[in-house]
Structure formats: C-alpha cells, structure tokens
Automatic annotation (TrEMBL):
Source organism: Oppiella nova
Protein name (database record): Enoyl reductase (ER) domain-containing protein
Annotated Gene3D superfamilies: Medium-chain alcohol dehydrogenases, catalytic domain (3.90.180.10), NAD(P)-binding Rossmann-like Domain (3.40.50.720)
Family: Belongs to the zinc-containing alcohol dehydrogenase family. Quinone oxidoreductase subfamily.
Superkingdom of the source species: Eukaryota
Any GO CC annotation of this UniProt entry: mitochondrion
Enoyl reductase (ER) domain mapped to chain residues: 11-298
GO molecular function per UniProt: oxidoreductase activity; zinc ion binding
Length: 308
C-alpha cells in the first residue's frame, strides 16, 4: 500500500512524498479501512508547517479524515464488522493517517455511515468543530447575532446552518459574489464581502450594539476589528488564524477533538442523520470544475490541499 508522509516542514507540496509500506493485518485492537475518499482541511497546511505538533518525529503521516470500507478488524474488536462503510478521523494531531490507500484506526475513531456519500466527510473536522464549538463555547441562543468568518469554507458553511437552526441572526464574511450567493442560499442574514465592503464600517453602522458571538478563524487585522465589535457579555471564539498559518503558531482556544471528544459521537450521529434527511447541506469541491479535473487517486491530494 502507499500513503503520503511528511519529510520536511515547509509547504505541503515540498513537504510530502508518497511512501509504500507492506499491507499487514491490523493489530488486535485496530480496524483496517480501505480508503475511498479523504477530506482536505485548512489544518493540513498548519500540520505540514509543524505548527500543531512541533515535536513530531519525521516522517509522519498526514490527513485528518477518511471515508471507506472496513477491510479487516483485530481479534479484540467487537464493535465493527468487515464490509461496513465508515468515516474515521484522527483523535489528535499526532495520529493522522487519511492520505493513504489503507489506514489502521482505533475503533473509537471509526463511525459507521449508511453509504459512501463523500458529504459525510464534511461532518468530521468541519462539522464537529462548527456545531460543538458554537454550542459549547459560543453558547448560541435564539436571537443572538452570530458572525462567522470564512463562512463559505468547510467549517463556516456548516456553522452558518447550525446557527440559523438555533434561531440566530447570522452575519457571514466572505470574499466573492459566488460565495456570497451560496451563503444567501444557506440563510445567512447579512453577507459581508470584505473585498468590496469595509468590515469596520459595516459593523459600526449596522450593528451598533455589537455582535454576540464571533467565530474567528482569520487572525491579524480581522481579529483586531472584530474584537472591537464584540457585544457586552459576547463570546469571541478563536478557532484558527488562517492568515498566519505559515508564519506563526495557530492561536486556538477550540480544540474540539481533545476538549470535547466525549460529545463527538452524539453530534456526528445527529449530523449524519441531517445529511441523510437533507436537513444539512454539505458543499464539497471534488475538483470536477477545476482545469486539471476531478481529484482522483493518491497523487491528487497535493492539488486538493493547495486550493485556496
Ligand atoms: N480548532 C479546530 O479544531 C479547527 C477545526 C477546523 C478548522 N479550524 C480553523 O478554521 C479555519 C477554517 O478552516 P476550514 O477547513 O473551514 O477552511 P477552508 O474551507 O479551507 O476555508 C478557508 C477560507 O478562509 C478564508 N480566508 C480568509 N483569509 C484567508 C487567508 N489569508 N488565507 C487563506 N484563506 C483565507 C477564505 O474564504 P473567503 O474567500 O470566503 O474569505 C478561504 O476559502 C482555519 O483557520 C482552520 O485552522 C479549526
């Protein structure tokens, strides 16, 4: 079998190379998954830049989330069976694996799904971060004004829908008319295109009493501006700092995979049901509209990660 391993800590393309290792039976407490789809996250770039686990020994595996079929189970595994469709995700940044043809996973990180619909992949890092983060740290309430940065991104567009479902007034930040259109379709009450509108001016004029919950993923000047518009008793959630991914350690007060692991099972089951019942829209980029075509095969991982 083959998989991607990190060999240096510069940019993703330069940092990785495909390596082949023997495909062996899973350990007694492991599940072996044949990978069909892998999810791409903003965190991949931070990982290869060494920001999340600076003490990791090189080379290490990459890729946070996988959708596939169980190929074999260890003799102590009673919770899963061969042939099941599953999603799997790394419990922490030292256990990444998904950019590989096969993966060995602990059973607690393997969740059954009803089909191989790639939309289920969006429920792991993105879906769980958005929903658990808004509920547990944002403590969103009906009527709250909730501002979501990178709102058309993987995490953001699920956050928008979750906040709307809770009865919030949702403000979404984005950078293009195409993304603004998607956000409007998802129910965003006020889309701010920060390329054509001045964020500080819009918030001062339209939200003079401030914003109750701010989902901050950008950092730098955006963080400074938003901080000044937090309402009294508001909650500012620092979920990432994508503008500084390659230059500075990620400031992050939300590590849901560690802090909120106990909630993940409950939330992911609900989200799977929501996708099946068309209550949650998960928008994916499978590459079909890109000049080089659909992302197919392990070689295409680099292209997927490099998309802005
Ligand atoms: N704490 C956690 O557990 C956790 C989990 C998941 C994600 N995160 C963080 O949440 C953020 C979003 O992650 P994601 O996977 O949803 O990202 P994504 O789908 O790749 O979306 C990223 C979006 O960020 C916006 N952006 C604004 N300024 C940017 C810049 N300087 N460079 C690149 N993108 C910029 C862009 O949208 P516009 O063009 O619309 O501005 C871009 O499409 C990241 O900071 C990530 O690290 C944290």
């Amino acid at each position: 079998m083959s998989g991607w391993g990190i060999y240096t800590t510069s940019n993703f393309r330069e940092a990785v190379k495909v390596v082949s290792v023997p495909l062996v039976a899973p350990g007694d407490d492991q599940v072996l998954i044949r990978n069909i789809y892998a999810g791409v996250n903003a965190a991949d770039v931070g990982t290869t830049a060494g920001l999340f686990n600076p003490n990791a020994e090189l080379p290490f595996d990459v890729g946070l989330e996988a959708l596939g079929v169980i190929e074999a189970v260890g003799k102590n595994v009673t919770t899963h069976t061969v042939g099941q469709y599953v999603i799997a995700f790394g419990a922490n940044h030292t256990k990444e694996f998904a950019y590989a043809e096969y993966l060995y996973v602990q059973p607690e990180d393997v969740i059954p799904v009803p089909s191989l619909n790639p939309k289920f992949l969006g429920l792991l890092v993105s879906g769980l971060t958005a929903t658990i983060g808004l509920d547990e740290l944002g403590r969103i309430q009906k009527g709250d004004k909730v501002l979501i940065t990178a709102s058309a991104g993987g995490t953001g567009h699920i956050g928008v829908q979750w906040a709307k479902r809770k009865g919030a007034y949702v403000i979404g930040l984005t950078s293009s008319p195409e993304k603004a259109k998607l956000l409007t379709e998802l129910g965003t009450d006020r889309v701010i295109d920060y390329k054509t509108e001045n964020l500080d001016e819009v918030l001062t004029k339209e939200f003079p009493h401030g914003v109750d919950v701010i989902w901050e993923t950008i950092g730098g000047q955006v963080y400074e501006t938003l901080f000044n518009h937090l309402a009294p008793k508001g909650r500012l959630l620092i979920v990432g700092s994508i503008s500084g991914h390659l230059t500075s350690p990620t400031i992050d007060n939300l590590n849901m995979k560690v802090d909120h692991k106990a909630l993940c099972g409950k939330y992911v089951r609900q989200l799977i049901g929501d996708v099946v019942n068309n209550k949650l829209r998960v928008v994916l980029d499978l590459g079909q509209n890109r000049s080089e075509g659909e992302f197919v095969g392990i070689e295409s991982v680099v292209r997927g990660v490099e998309i802005p």
